[in-house]
């Protein structure tokens, strides 16, 4: 996968992004409870949905948000979702997406990016730690709050 590129989510790519097939059990970790409750606080103008392409094929999706004025620190430069197609996992797609999000956060003046995840056997904890996120706390729902210093 040498030809990875990032593209804004469009009418042409949304169907492919919605149709990404994950490994069994991963679907349960797509939306942490904390984000479900915080969604109403999300400023839609700061949302950052992107697809990762390998050539012309959508192999990943990343959704982040940026809101420097959020009263919640973990919502200021937050990685909300990352999905990598089952057949593309372990090939650098997720790392590429996180790096792109971190680069965007840095360009917008943020010094830290955050992500929330639930623990579990098929969960994303190993991945988030491998790309540099460090657990800095827990949410009221018992999920991990990770931070990536930029």
Automatic annotation (TrEMBL):
Residues 4-150 form the N-acetyltransferase domain. PROSITE patterns: GNAT. One of its GO terms (molecular function) is acyltransferase activity. InterPro entries: Acyl_CoA_acyltransferase, GNAT_dom. It holds the Pfam family Acetyltransf_1. Its EC number is 2.3.-.-. Signal peptide: none annotated. Coiled coil: none annotated. Keywords: Acyltransferase, Transferase. The keyword Transferase applies. It is an enzyme of class 2 (transferase). This is GNAT family N-acetyltransferase. It comes from Lysinimonas soli.
């Amino acid at each position: 996968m040498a030809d990875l590129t990032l593209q804004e989510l469009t009418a042409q790519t949304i169907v492919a992004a919605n149709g990404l097939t994950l490994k069994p059990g991963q679907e349960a970790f797509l939306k942490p409870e904390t984000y479900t409750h915080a969604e109403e606080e999300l400023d839609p103008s700061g949302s950052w949905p992107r697809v990762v392409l390998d050539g012309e094929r959508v192999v990943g999706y990343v959704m982040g948000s940026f809101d420097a004025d959020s009263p919640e620190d973990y919502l200021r430069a937050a990685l909300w979702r990352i999905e990598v197609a089952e057949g593309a996992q372990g090939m650098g797609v997720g790392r590429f997406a996180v790096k792109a999000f971190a680069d965007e956060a840095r360009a917008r003046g943020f010094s830290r990016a955050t992500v929330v995840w639930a623990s579990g056997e098929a969960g994303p904890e190993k991945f988030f730690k491998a790309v540099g996120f460090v657990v800095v706390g827990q949410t009221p729902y018992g999920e991990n709050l990770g931070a990536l210093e930029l």
